[in-house]
Amino acid sequence: MSFTADRLLLFGATGDLTQRMLLPSLCALHDDKLIAPELTIIGTARSEYDDDTYQAFARVALEKYLPDFRKHAIDSFLPRLKYQVLDATQADHFTELADEIGEAKKGMAIFLSTAPSLFEPTIAGLTKAGLTGDKVRIGLEKPLGTSLETSREINDAVAAAFSEDRIFRIDHYLGKETVQNLLALRFANIMFEPLWNAAHIDHVQITIAETVGLESRVGYYDGAGALRDMVQNHMLQLLALVAMEPPTSYDATPIQDEKVKVLRALRVVAPAETVTGQYRKGAIDAQPVPGYDEELGKPSDTETFVAIKAHVDNWRWAGVPFYLRTGKRLPERKTEIVVNFRCIPHSIFAARGAKTQPNALVIGIQPEENIQLQLMAKEPGLDRDGIRLRPVPLNITMPDAFAGPKKRIAYERLLLDLIEGDQTLFVRRDEVEAQWGWIDQIRASWAEHDVKPKAYSAGNWGPSAAIALAERDGVTWHD
Ligand code: BG6
């Protein structure tokens, strides 16, 4: 149903995500006049605020997290904010919420980020209060369950109140400009697609490395771990975008159709093809940092690092491994996709002593946004001692190529799409369930083989077994 919402209802309005991402994003959209003047934002949470005190709370968050060039917009943004105390387990609170929201002339968008246990009571409360009609759509923030079974329960509960075209499952990686640029790279250029297959690609590496540790998320993270926190969603979405067939158009259904085919083609992973780790004390940027168990205050079997050798069992990718790794307290913050091409079939330079290396396409997602194509070139000279070839990078640095446009955070894009109703950059139910199915199988094999995370010192690229996972295939991680 196409409508632009004139009400935005934010659950978890006092939470970390709202303070760091949602309020700054909404203020930026307001500043750029991308949201209509009549859009009212209603925050709800359990804390006892009223409209005025919530606006004061929001001001503090915006002063802290908004970039300086946006701060002039705070005063004019704050009057959009209203607040209603809400305990999702109290049905009557939803009636009061409906009164506070008042009549949405055009429609309402809901942003729901809540503990999995509160999804069902929240949907039930919204339904009872008449807040789930045709002119209401809902954005769902992770964690959408902890397994296929629990994710189905959440999906069923939401589906009882909202049709799929009004459900917007968020994976904030899809809101990142560089992730969207992957589609442009693959499908707005003629030169990659003919090579984008097992005949020409040897293997693919995807790394999502973070330097942060547990931060203040003990309650959530220790139950989740790197596999469920990062691989189930962000990593698999990146993999799907790299591996999918060309969609017929840049629209939600064709793109989601192609992604889900990839996710369903993921091969069951053998335990020997995964490595898990947990960081111990070490140093990041020469600063000492504590180990995970010290931050947590108790020993734990939760993995803070995972590496996986994955396979997409279809015609295009037969025999091409996808090496995936993600972890906390790694040496640098870096999200990167490296497509490693095969060797040339015959070197005309070999008899002249020159060695060739395979081409590689390095797609930097963050923090560096650049695309680099490693090509072989001849070293200048008269070649009396033979020919020397060397890989040289062909670089496209995004901030240089597009110096004008403002750098936006992922949630600006996703909130605007939610308000306006564009599902292209959201995740459909069948995708989420295919993702969970694959993750559950890995967790089941870990449980069966009693796999425990191996220790790695903070500031290293995970346990040494992760290096061995690639090296036994003759592959070196691109660090
Ligand atoms: C979140 C995870 O989904 O993504 C966090 O829960 C992680 O653990 C974060 O730190 C990383 O996001 P980004 O945008 O900083 O790469």
Describe this structure in words.
This protein has 479 residues and is an alpha/beta fold. It has two domains: 163 residues, 3-Layer(aba) Sandwich (Rossmann fold), CATH 3.40.50.720; 278 residues, Dihydrodipicolinate Reductase, domain 2, CATH 3.30.360. Helix content is 35%, strand content 21%. It is built from 14 helices and 17 strands. A nine-stranded mixed sheet has the order 16-15-14-13-7-12-11-8-17, with helices on both faces. Helix 4 crosses helix 5. The protein is globular and about 85 Å long. The model has no long low-confidence stretch (mean pLDDT 95). 6-O-phosphono-beta-D-glucopyranose binds next to loops.
Write the layout of secondary structure elements.
Layout: E1 7-11, H1 16-31, E2 40-45, H2 51-65, H3 74-77, E3 81-85, H4 91-101, E4 108-112, H5 116-128, E5 136-140, H6 148-159, E6 167-169, H7 177-187, E7 201-209, H8 218-243, H9 252-264, E8 274-280, E9 282-284, E10 287-289, H10 292-296, E11 305-311, E12 321-327, E13 334-341, E14 360-366, E15 370-378, E16 389-397, H11 398-401, H12 410-420, H13 429-448, E17 454-457, H14 464-471
Helix pairs in contact: 1-2, 1-12, 4-5, 5-6, 6-13, 8-9, 8-13, 9-13
This protein binds 6-O-phosphono-beta-D-glucopyranose (BG6).
6-O-phosphono-beta-D-glucopyranose binds next to loops.
